[in-house]
Amino acid sequence: MVTIKQIADLCGVSRGTVDRVLNNRGNVKPEKRELILQMAKKLNYTPNPAGKALAAQKSNPVVGILLPSKGIHFFDDVIDSLEKSEKKYEPYGMRVIWQTVRGYDVEEQCRILNELKPKINALIVNPINDPRFVSKLNELIAAGIFVVTINNDVEQADTHYYVGSNYINGGRTMGALLKMIGPDEAHIGVILGSLKLLGHRHRLQGLQESINNIPAYSIIEVIEDNDDNICSYDKTKNMLTAHPEINVLTILSSGGSYGTCRAAISMTDRNFLILVFDTIPTTREMMKSGIIRAAIYQHPHQQGQKAMQLVFDYLVNGIIPERNHYIMNNEIRILENI
């Protein structure tokens, strides 16, 4: 096996210089960099996993994970993928500090960021798009912490990386789906988790853009359910009672989708076209029962895997991501392909 020392001797440079080039960190003169890369390629150099593991263990990389996942089954698949990646990277000494919360309390999550800051080298977070939270996030970035936002992003944050779907495209996709299978006149009730989340706002924006040119389509009311089924049931029931003209329900986040569907079922004298995001277990049940017609899927397993890979590559291999956004496709799922 070719070693860094051998490449250094052949190129007439130090082992440190070779290490910086092969791990893409630090400044090396272009001509030396090219020489080292050509020599490594000529000798078919491959990194020594044991050596990388030992180096990583010495640096004690720690990743903080903050997710508002309590009560939201969408995150089950994200967490499953993150946990599998955690076990995969354990031999390299990478350790994870988990923080899961319920809802979108800005003060609570800012407090958690404060607690995590002195303990971590990287952060994977589903963020609240609030100036206070963004300010805390920027403090971490300024302190040298590598930040990846997952499934939701924020505005006006410093350099960080996003893994998730394109929410505006998701809203437009739902609007296009509605135009394909919806009634001639659509009086729409919109249910989403929280307008504090940039993604939920963007989905609403995309939906509105998609149907704006159709006079017979109108959004009657938008409600926030905090991604909670009990809250969603109560608010949806009130909305449907107050607006008997509503015949379409678009659920832009899955946390309260079951509550919304139960409220729709309770209106026994009315029928609704219901479109949702994510294929969580209760959504699949409702699709099999004919309550939900279609769902838009955003690849939660891939989101978790990619976020942890970016963090591992940066902390252990010194690899800076090629781009700032890693976007998963919005895919339409129906009963036949769930």
Automatic annotation (TrEMBL):
GO biological processes: regulation of DNA-templated transcription
Domain HTH lacI-type: 2-56
Gene3D superfamilies found in the cross-reference section: 3.40.50.2300, lambda repressor-like DNA-binding domains (1.10.260.40)
Listed GO MF terms: carbohydrate binding; DNA binding
SMART domains registered for this protein in UniProt: HTH_LACI
Gene Ontology cellular-component terms listed: outer membrane-bounded periplasmic space
Similarity-based family: Belongs to the bacterial solute-binding protein 2 family.
Name of the protein described by the UniProt record: LacI family transcriptional regulator
Organism: Megasphaera cerevisiae DSM 20462
